[in-house]
Amino acid sequence: MAYVTVPKDLTKVKSKVVFGLTKRQLICFGGALLVGIPLFFLIRGRVPTSAAALIMVFAMLPGFLLALYEKHGQPLEVVARQIVECCFIQPKERPYQTNNAYTALVRQSQMEKEVNAIVQKAKERNERKSAGQAHPRRKERNSGCHPKV
């Protein structure tokens, strides 16, 4: 009886399209062939055949690398972008910063105290203004009459 090994993580299994190659590999190999073969025939008459073959290999190498190279499940262009960002785009010194929940709560309580103090001050000012005077509409309501418009 034949035994077949089944990987534990089925998300790492890639679907094969033709000749045991994935779509990505077929596209990259096709692009490399479209670049390399015409280049070989164009320069074969001007340089020796071995040099033309070597130039063709170097011209096709990026396509092969894009098709086959993976590091930690990431394709070559993702790895290259991360290297460029790390070395050239992001700052060299990145200080450690935390989001401390306790300091956020302290700031929030301080702001609430400030707001309450402002509201209290406004209430006291309004009370001093109208000390001993009833609100004009309150008088009218209490008298049983409707306010005159």
UniProtKB/TrEMBL annotation:
Biased composition (Basic and acidic residues): 120-130
UniProt-listed Pfam families: PrgI
Region (Disordered), start-end ranges: 120-149
Domain of life: Bacteria
Transmembrane segments: 26-43, 49-69
Keyword list, A-Z: Membrane, Transmembrane, Transmembrane helix
Protein name in UniProt: PrgI family protein
Organism encoding this protein: Faecalibacterium langellae
